[in-house]
Write a structure and sequence with these properties.
alpha/beta, 6-stranded mixed β-sheet, 5-stranded mixed β-sheet, 7 helices, binds manganese (II) ion
Length: 270
Amino acid sequence: MKLTGLKLSEPLKAPCVSGITEMAPLSRPVFVSDLHLSGRNKKTVLGFLWFLKTQAKNYDELFLLGDIFEYWIGDDASSPAEPLARALRKYASLGKRVYLMQGNRDFLIGEDFARHCGAELVADGTVVECSGKRILLSHGDKWCTLDDEYQEFRRQMHDEAFQLMALRMTVEERIDFAKKARAQSKKTKTERSREMMDVVYDEVACEVFAKNCAHVIHGHTHRPAHYVYDNFTRTVIPDWDLDDKNRPRKGWVEINSAGEPQVVLSEHFF
Ligand code: MN
């Protein structure tokens, strides 16, 4: 199958330097991440379309905080994501605000695809305001600093010159490159401890304090939880996998009536 998609903006901007960092205060936000959508997890895709049609209506701002896709090789190869783009546009047309952030797998998502979804691309590390509190938003992988090897790989992938070079390659060349990178990551993953794949408290706290926030919300680790520390709270968004027969799961993070972020694990199954 030949992948097609949007025409990339000219002049081409590297996704790592794209995205807004400021926005109007939020009223009823919902935070989703780590859907890891691909052609292989149809139930998860359907589950997220169900979420957009039903649950998402209870909120006013939808944040997709990274790894919505298992991989992303450029907005000009976005055709498989068309059903999702259409559903997001429909949701946005109800007067909802939609924000899209890059994760570590879909780090090449750019402003062209965000616009196509009726969304705005939002930069990792953006601060939002809700119920009078400042909330730091991130995918979270940048704080997994015990994993030197991963951080080195991340630095390479987030290099502006590299991204521009990659987006100028043909789609076929990029597919080949992504497959090799994925195989390499699978090979090394087994050697990593559980601790190495979690965020480091000091790294998170440093950014939370520098940006004067009361809360931080992130994904990436697939360990949904709400932590209360002395000076801030940290809420980890659940990952989704409805194709996993043994442990089908989905969920999101909302702001509860007390103005605190809260994990919602959804019990609804198909
Ligand atoms: Mn991730």
